[in-house]
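Narrative of activities, Objective 1.

The group set out to show that a structural description can be obtained from nothing but a protein's sequence at a throughput compatible with the screening campaign. Below is one input-output pair from the validation batch, recorded exactly as produced.
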Amino acid sequence: MTQLLTHETLLQIDHIFVCLETAPDINFLKNLGLICSDNTTYHPQQGTASSLIFFENTYIEFIWVDDETMAEIYAMHSGIDFIARSYSLEKTASPFGIALHQKPDVIHQYRNSLKINHKTSEQFINFANSNLVAQAEPLCFMIPESISFSNIFNPQFEAHQKLINHPLEIKKLTNTKIAMRKIGKLTNPISMLDRDGIIEIEQNSSPLLELTFDHSSRGENIDLRVIDIPIVLKF
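Output recorded for this entry:
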């Protein structure tokens, strides 16, 4: 029973986002061998737009500010400042966000063992406001199970299958490392994710998201900083 209550067994990465100052060069990414979503998704209430790259167990979301006025209003109401987090070497805010969800298999066991309902388990883990206001840290938040990646993405669908058949043949995210400027003590949410091996945190460094796919079985990497995206893909 104790094992079921640990953060390590309850959480996993749903998806990862990076805030950019402008829309990414989709053609450049495609030429590298990465399949990007053709459509831009707009978030009017946030004042942002985004494009996605899907993999078998997660996706990367590139977010940029499309409407500064709405983005400022959203920041005042939510505490999430996409303008401040837009990637630049001169800025102190982290451009990264980690969306997490509860592992479906463990949650199912947990519900059955305690005979609790869906609503109770959804509220079991909450992150503190301390991470929300600590802009130098990656933002981390929960995704409800009903809209988690594993529930909305089905690789058996032909349309979905096309999105993950990358010419580079990279499939599953197996490790996530985030470099950030040195800030000393981390907030509890980020410390927990680092401690439990969900992500790795490295301080005293420029912002960088290092994503390892398929345990880096081919020993290759792509550095997207050449187009102002602070991401390195290892595969």
